[in-house]
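If you are new to this repository, start here. Below is one unmodified record pulled from the training split, so you can see the exact layout before writing a loader.
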Amino acid sequence: MTTKPHAVFEDDDLETMSVIEAGRHAGLGKNAAYAAAKRGEIPVMRFGRKMRVSKARFRKKMLEEG
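And here is the target side for that same chain:
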């Protein structure tokens, strides 16, 4: 019997998304999304080299600017 090291969640259950996913929601390509994250236009959380975008913060920022 094999065990999984941690639970597997559906993407909709995650509270974060990648910079690329956030960019797609904003109509941006990969490079433009990372550039927007670097400028602070996409709010990111950094975990070492990894960047994640809070779905709640992203929605709030889009509503404020939209």
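Two things worth knowing about this chain: The beta strands are 16-17, 45-47, 50-54. Helices lie at 19-25, 30-39, 55-65.
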